[in-house]
Amino acid sequence: MQVVRLASETDFDGWRRAARLLRGADVSPEDALWTVDGGGDLFGQTTEPAAAAASFTVPREFVEVAEQVVLHSSGERFALLYRLLWRLANEPNLMHIASDPDVARARDMAGAVSKAIHKMKAFVRFRQVEGADEETYVAWFEPAHRVAEAAAPFFARRYANMNWSILTPDRCAHWDKVLPKFTPGADPADAPSEDALEDYWRTYYASTFNPARLKVGAMQR
Predict the structure, then answer these.
(1) Is it the case that residue 42 has pLDDT exceeding 90?
(2) Which of 56, 125, 136, 152 is 20 to 30 A from residue 119's alpha carbon, by CA?
(3) Cα(117)–Cα(17) distance, integer angstroms
(4) Rounded-to-integer distance, Cα 159 and Cα 126, Å
(5) For position 131, what pLDDT does the model report?
(6) 79 Cβ partners below 8 Å, 6+ apart?
(7) What is residue 85's three-state secondary structure?
(8) Phi–psi pair at 27, nearest 5 degrees
């Protein structure tokens, strides 16, 4: 069994790199276990598989679907994508077979993610933080899937001239009129009411942006 340890729940680059190594080493989907531990050490203490010399390509359509599926909340997403990747070697037109269970599941997941992004764009409502040093706005939102980073560019364009934060359970997005920043998700158990949102934001911001533990590079990634 080959255990893959991805850096985050939405680590598409890590999944792609590991999937290529596994596929090149002829590791079957049944022999690959996908986990997330935040370490970013793809194969942990196990031996990294040696990729075969021959290279392979996949349809762009698969890559586009995979980028969406990785944002889904389902725990099966990484394994499903690797199974599709494995099958594409012998079934190059697989992504066009709508009745195939794996393809149908992946497309359903991608569609759900697109819908979640659309809902986030439509329903996020900012509230001004009274008494902040600079004019700042905050919003709390609970998307159905892990789409905070995917939706953030939309808000950066639309609200480019104001400071804002969008707090979600999986990932929080922040904009300072220069660069987007991302921090760990806020605890949904502590989800603030509308009246308590400003105090909640102050507490979260103060703990997350402590200068002693601030890692700008990691936040931007």
Answers:
(1) no
(2) 136
(3) 26
(4) 10
(5) 73
(6) 29, 32, 34
(7) helix
(8) -85, 120
d(CA 144, CA 114): 11
Tokens representing 138 are: 């905050």
Q: CA distances (Å), 157 to each of 140, 175, 176, 218, 219, in order?
A: 19, 10, 12, 22, 19
Which tens digit of pLDDT belongs to each residue from 119-130?
Answer: 999 999 998 888
**The two structure tokens encoding residue 73:** 């909340």
Mean of pLDDT values over 88-102:
96
Alpha helices (runs of H) in 94-196, residue ranges in sequence order: 101-123, 148-158
**Quick check: helix, strand or coil at residue 210?**
coil
Q: Which amino acid type is present at position 78? A: F
CA angle, corner 37, sides to 32 and 38, nearest 5? 125
Query: Do 103 and 95 meet the contact criterion of CB atoms below 8 Å apart?
Result: yes
CA 153 vs CA 58, 166, 175, 182, 201: distances in Å? 27, 12, 10, 12, 21
Q: In a 3-state reduction of DSSP, which class is residue 208?
A: helix
